[in-house]
Amino acid sequence: MKTIDEIIEAILRNALAREISIGTPDGEANRHAYIQSFEGEGERKIRFVVDDLEALKEAGLLHPHRTVAMSIGGADGSDVLALMKRMNLSAGVLLEYDNDAGLNAQERTRDLREDGSLKFSVVIGDAMQKLNTALDKAKSAVKDADTLIVLCFGVLHELPKRSPNYTHDRFFDILFSAFPTVMVYCAEPCAQPEFPLGWPQSVELGFPGVKADRLAGIARFICDRLFVGKADAPEQRGQDLVRMNRDLAVELLHKTLRFSSVDRFHHEMEERLTSFDVQSLSSMLATRIANLEQEIAYRTSDGFRKEYRDHGVNVRDERGAALPIPFTHSRLILRRFAQSHPQLQRAKAEAADFAPPPVPTKAPAVADPVSAAGAPSAASGSDGGKVNISVSNQAGRDVRSTVTNRTFTFNK
Ligand SMILES: C[S@@+](CC[C@H](N)C(=O)[O-])C[C@H]1O[C@@H](n2cnc3c(N)ncnc32)[C@H](O)[C@@H]1O
Fold this sequence. Notes:
Blueprint: H1 4-13, H2 25-36, H3 42-45, H4 47-58, E1 67-72, H5 78-87, E2 91-96, H6 99-114, E3 120-124, H7 131-141, E4 147-153, H8 159-162, H9 168-178, E5 181-189, E6 202-206, H10 212-226, E7 235-237, E8 241-245, H11 246-257, H12 262-268, H13 278-288, E9 293-299, H14 302-310, E10 314-316, E11 329-336, H15 342-354, H16 369-372, E12 388-392, E13 398-402, E14 407-411
Parallel strand pairs: 1-2, 1-4, 2-3, 4-5, 9-14, 12-14
Antiparallel strand pairs: 5-11, 6-8, 6-10, 7-8, 9-11, 12-13
The chain binds S-adenosylmethionine (SAM).
C-alpha cells in the first residue's frame, strides 16, 4: 500500500503538470480501463433492488411477466441481466453510451437472444437523446407490459455534465410517463447531507505525516478545476491541517484514498463525485410526479471506509471537534404505481376505514399515470404521505423516526 504522502508526491510531481483528455491515446486507454472496472459488478449492485422487489411481489404489487427492466449507463449490462434472472422478468433493455461496453453486452447475450430465450435489447447512445428509443424497445418487448423498472447506478451524477440537454426534470418526466407503474433505483456517489447528518459546511482535514502545504496544493488543484464558484479557496491551518468546504474535502479524499495511478487520477479529475444532491432531486420530484413514493439512503462505501481507517484520516470541525467518517453514496428508490391497481385500491380503502375524517384541502392537480402515459407528467403535489427517516447504527440496526413525507436511511 502506498502511503498518503507517496500518493500526494505522485500527484504533485506528475499530475499537476500534465493534462490528459478523452481522445488522446492515454485518454482512450483510461476510458477503457474505467469501463472495464465496472464489468460483472451488476449482481452485487442489484441486491437492494431485489430486496425491494421481492417485498413488492409478495404484496401483489409486482407481476414479473408484465414487467420490463432497463439499465441506464449500465456498462456491460450485468446489472439488468442479473435483475432479469433474479426476478424472472420478461424483458430488459440496456441504454449505454460506451460503444465497447454496449457491444460487449450484445455479444455476451447473442445466443440467448437468437434462440428466443432472452428478450434483451441494447441501445448504444446518450441517455437523454436515446431515452425514447430505449423506452420504445421496452414497450414493444412484451405485450401488455405495464411496469418499468429502471436502474441508474453511478450515472445520474455524470449526466448533467456529459449528456447534452440533460436535466433531471426532463429525464424523470419522460421515464414516469412511459408506463403506468414505474420504479427507479438510483445509487450514486453524492454530496454530503447537511450537518448534523453530514459534515458542517467547512471542515479541517489532515493526514498523519503530511505537511499542510502539500495537502493544500492538491486541495487548490481540485478546487480550481471542479469547484469553480462552489467553494472558497482552501486555507492552510497550522502545520498539519487544511480548512476547506466539506464537499471539496470528500472529493479530495475520493481522489487520494482511491488513487491507483497518475493517468487514472487525470481521468477521475474529469468528474466530481460530490455533485449529486439526492435531497434536492427528491424534493423536485415530489413536486412534479403525483403519487410518488420515495426512499433515500445514505451510505459510506466499504472501500472508502477501509482506506479512510487505514490512512488515519483526521477531520474536525472549525472548533476542533473530531468528525465521523463522511457519507460517500446515496440511494434513491422511486415508486409510482398505476392508480387503478387493485392491490393499491384495497390498501387505500383499508386505510380510509381507520383514518380520521379528512381535512378539506385544495385538490392536487394529479395526472392519472395511465392516461398520462406517453406525455410528460403534469406538475402536481406529492400525496402528502408520511415521512420516515431511518438511521442505521454501526451494527446496521435500523432506528426509525417519522419526520416528513419521504423515507431516509443513514448507514455509516
Ligand atoms: C460510473 S459508470 C457506472 C457503470 C455501472 N452502472 C456500474 O455502476 O457499475 C457510468 C456509466 O455511465 C455511462 N454513461 C456516461 N455518460 C452517459 C450518457 N450520456 N449516456 C449513457 N450512458 C452514459 C458510462 O459509459 C458508464 O458505463
